Amino acid sequence: MVLFFAGCKKNPPAAKILTSIAVTTPPVKTAYTIGDTFDPTGMVVTATYSDKSTSEITITANMLSYDFSTVGNKTVTITYDGQTTTFTGITVNAALAITGFSPAEAQHDSIITITGVSFNPTPANNIVAFNGIAATVVSATTTQLTVKVPKDKNSSGKISVTVANNTATSATNFTYVFTAVVSTLTVGGGNPLSIVLDASDNMYTNNFYSILKITSVGIVSDMNVNFGSVDGLALDGQGNLYVASGSYSTIYKIILSTGEISTLAGNGGQGLTNGFGTAATFNYPSGLTFDGHGNLYVADLFNDAIRKIVIATGQVTTLAGGNGGLDVNYPKGVALDTAGNVYVANYGGSNILRISPTGSVNTLAGSGYGGIVDGKGAAAQFLAPAGIVYDGIGNLYVADITAIRKIVISTGVVTTIAGSGGFGGRADGVGAAAQFSQANAIVMDTSGNLYVADENDGIRKITFE
After folding, report:
1. CB–CB of 452/458 below 8 Å?
2. Least confident of 105-119, 128-142, 390-404, 448-462
3. E-strand spans in 311-436?
4. Which pLDDT score, from 0 to 100, does residue 408 have?
5. Residue 123 CB-half CA count within 13 A
6. Which of 178, 323, 330, 445 has the most C-beta neighbours closer than 10 Å?
7. Where residue 405 falls among pLDDT bands split at 50, 70, 90?
8. What is the pLDDT at residue 165?
9. What is 180-464's CATH number?
10. For residues 202 and 220, is the Cβ–Cβ distance under 8 A?
11. Closest of 139, 92, 100, 136 to residue 118, by C-alpha
């Protein structure tokens, strides 16, 4: 018998076919600026197959299609194995930019308003810096930030705003305005009319008719000399101190290492005579300044003149004035810039003069009418400018009796940095809260601090924040 066995052959399982893909979790980042690249971090795309099974797809850059070249709501298309899906929750904004800020200059802790596009409405998400110095963002919208100016003297320069990894920079510079803090270095006595500092910041000032030395660490010594009056002091960088004695109408030289005193120019008689040494005459010489090239400049008070002395020979000439006060009028202080221009605290004219190396005179600032008024050029007013100093970077500081004034030479803009210009007194403080009795002379140390000879009230120090 033959037996036959027959079996059933199973069909192979049907192939699993991808039927659709879908975004099941949105990406973390949904806000972009023009030109950005889409970031799929956090986005989950799920594939569904014919057998109802699912799996997550690994997203690669070549699966993505989008256009972030214009502003608006955007769609990202994801293509995988012939299937596509889209995500529409993307917003593209204009590129981060600063369109302006106001005010253009301010002191620390002032509020600056920055306008622009694509700022973050959450203040902490905007990183703002003034010349690289971090600032505090007080409030924010997508088009405006309010920011507190940092307390840092290096804050002048461009303002930058960083949002995420994008940074925008202002087209113009912000100017940090220093805050003047006035303190009292020495109190009363000595009736200080003049002051000068050496390269080590040792100070020389008058003690009535004599001269005091105050070291940078505060040690005080008296030279115990009598010049009748000490109305101006200057150093030549070679260890010599020059003294203008208004009472004796003479310029003296002191060799500091030995204390030896000699007459550089003048003979005690009053006049406006040019010549060498004692053949020359002055009429109450006051402020002095040294030009670094062997010459002294003298504010010759009652002669209404600016005189020049060649130290090596004692030759005295008249640079400007001496014409009865037509331009130079009762000058008390002189300063020099690096170009050789002489600036005059023109006490009698209530203005600041600039004299070229050739003797040409013009008014830098001041209307000629007494007052404490800030402004530009002739719009400003000075009460009675007595002392003046150049800071080496384009600015002058003026001791204007009860106020300290700053002049930007390039523009002629005058501002009051300390003192109110009202009745004299002695009060330490910030800016207008400080008071001066009678600021006569002013100098700057190597750190940029100012020292003021404040008659009746000693030496005042001004630091900047």
Report:
1. no
2. 448-462
3. 315-321, 331-336, 342-346, 351-355, 361-365, 375-376, 387-390, 395-400, 403-408, 413-418, 429-430
4. 97
5. 10
6. 330
7. very high
8. 83
9. 2.120.10.30
10. no
11. 92
CA distance 245 to 67: 81
Helices H, strands E: what count in the chain? 0, 42
3-state helix, strand, coil in the chain (%, to 5): 5, 50, 45
Domain parsing of the chain, residue ranges: 18-93, 97-176, 180-464
What number is the average pLDDT over the span 380-395? 97
Q: How far apart are CA 340 and CA 290, in angstroms?
A: 11
How many Cβ atoms are within 10 Å of 175's Cβ, its own excluded?
12
Taking the model in full, what pTM does it have? Answer: 0.80
For 18-93, CATH number? 2.60.40.3630
pLDDT at position 35: 84
Would the CATH topology of 97-176 be identical to that of 180-464?
no
User: In this model, does residue 6 exceed pLDDT 80?
Assistant: no
Please state the rounded mean pLDDT for residues 394-411: 97
pLDDT over threshold 50, residue 5: no
What is the DSSP pairing of strand 210-214 with strand 295-300? unpaired
Backbone angles phi, psi at 244, to 5 degrees: -95, 115
Burial of 365 (0-12, 13-18, 19+ CB in 10 A): buried
Question: 121-132 burial string, b = 16+ CB within 10 Å, else e?
Answer: eebeebebbbbe
